[in-house]
Amino acid sequence: MTSFLVVPQWQGSSSSRAMRLVDGAEAIRGDLPSARTRVLEVPLEAGDAQGTGVDRYSSLVEVRRRMLDALRELEAPVIVVGGDCGVELAAVEHAAADGDVALVWLDAHPDLNTPGSSQSGAFHGMVLRAILGEGAPGLTASTALVPGRVLLAGVRAPDDAETLLLEEHPLPWLDSDDVTPEKVVAAVEATGASRVYVHIDLDVLDPGDIDGIGFPEPFGVPAARLVETVQALTARFPLAGAGITEFAPSSPDAADGDLSVVLRLIGALRGPRPA
After folding, report:
1. End-to-end CA, the chain
2. Which of 203, 215, 54 is nearest to 121 (CA)?
């Protein structure tokens, strides 16, 4: 059975409204099965960079440590509910420990910066690079994921440093129009992995389908097609884990308007119910 770990981390975000991520995590938590859900305590303090080039570094390192401890205690697969995308470092690291996992990165942004290339210093723009083994001490995967096991899907807003990296070291990539059940399943099959981790930053969605995101980008994936794609993935591959991140509603009422989309995605991640 699926477990849920709610991690209301905001320290990895570059948004001036980062605290809305706490509200977003809480809004989603209210619709999760209480017996299968654990809420992680996140430090109250912002934390400091400690010379790493990562804003709020000290708090982020502490959350990673707490997450890894909690993930070891929960029944797999675990769906992590953020918070900012930085929560995915510990989540993917834990789920992919045996190496036989493909990571589907459903996100408007590739999150491939390093502390040296990032213009914002925000960890949520560095987390995939950290999963691939490059980043600040304490915020880098202990066992890096192989690039050929990563599929960028719906990414459409890389910055200049990320664009250069992807030109020199391309990763498998599907544009928003190509995020379909058939193409995503085929791309994961091509990695040779037998299990899948599904990362969903809600800004992968078309902004017309969701309001509560901090960094909307036009021409995203329609909600209905994204749900169908996730359903196809979980029907074809065992789920190693998943993450739903970056839900930042402007108010409780605004959260209610978006929750139907979020909950449909969570339902798709959980897979078909036994007959």
Report:
1. 15
2. 54
Q: In terms of Cα–Cα distance, which of 270, 267, 265, 158 is closest to 222?
A: 265
Structure tokens at 11: 């320290």
Given this structure, which CATH class describes domain 3-270? alpha beta
Rounded Cα gap, residues 115 and 63, in angstroms: 18
Domain ranges of the chain: 3-270
How far, in whole angstroms, is CA 48 from its chain's centroid? Answer: 23
Give residue-wise pLDDT tens across range 242-258. Answer: 999 999 999 989 999 99
Distance CA 32, CA 195 (A): 24
Residue 133 has pLDDT above 60, yes or no: yes
Tokens of 120: 């914002």
Q: In DSSP terms, which residues pair with 245 in a beta bridge?
A: 201
pLDDT in tens, 143-179: 999 999 999 999 999 999 999 999 999 999 999 999 9
pTM here is 0.97
